[in-house]
């Protein structure tokens, strides 16, 4: 369940403070009152926490394949796994990465 931020509309006499976080399901209605002090609150728009892979090793660990163009029709597989060709060449299907190693049901 996601975490949402709420802000008290008035000066709170609440242990939660002016801004507080609460876990709610996506289909739950926004709170109109603080669950602790019952004062009016409003929902804030917050920046989501999105993490992206930092490098080729993390991409490989997550099951991605990254090809970098090196020449016309030649790509380097910088996330090559054992048994994969380091270079992928156009019109040579045997150089393509084996996706059955990374794609599962």
Walkthrough of the structure:
It is a single chain. This protein has 105 residues and is mainly β. The radius of gyration is 25 Å and the shape is rod-shaped. It is built from 1 helix and 6 strands; from the N terminus they run E-E-E-H-E-E-E. It has one helix spanning 56-61, and strands spanning 3-8, 19-23, 41-43, 67-71, 74-77, 87-89. The protein starts with a strand and ends in a 16-residue tail after the last strand. It folds into 2 domains: 1-49, no CATH class; 56-96, no CATH class. The strands form 2 sheets. It has a 3-stranded antiparallel beta sheet with strand order 2-1-3, with no helix packed on it.
How are helices and strands ordered from N to C? EEEHEEE
Estimated structural class: mainly beta
Overall morphology: rod-shaped
Number of domains: 2
Runs in which pLDDT lies below 50 for 5 or more consecutive residues are none
Provide the β-strand percentage band: 15-25%
**N-to-C terminal Cα separation, in Å?**
25 Å
How many beta-strand runs?
A: 6
Mean pLDDT: 87
Strand order of the largest sheet: 2-1-3
Estimate percent helicity: under 10%
Radius of gyration (CA) equals 25 Å
